[in-house]
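REVIEWER CHECKLIST
Item 1: Sequence provided? yes
Item 2: Single chain? yes
Item 3: Sequence as submitted:
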Amino acid sequence: MNVLFNNPQLYVIDYPGHDALEILDKRNGRVGLLRGETAERMREEFREFLTQTHDDEEYADFLDAHDAILEHPVSLH
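Item 4: Structure as written out by the authors:
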């Protein structure tokens, strides 16, 4: 497990041994787990996004653009 990014709005975890990427939207308490080619595409989008500095609104816009993959509420086990 590798934490790729963590800020007050977003948490991104890479699971390289499982070819999976987990994205947590801290604003809404929702999470999405991507695997395979979908995970790889999202890794690339995220890497490209992080090549520049962004403010909170731009992070919110990035998350909102990927809202469909954040389909599960976060719960404590």
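Item 5: Key structural point noted by reviewer: The beta strands are 2-6, 10-15, 20-25, 30-35, 72-73.
Item 6: Recommendation: ____
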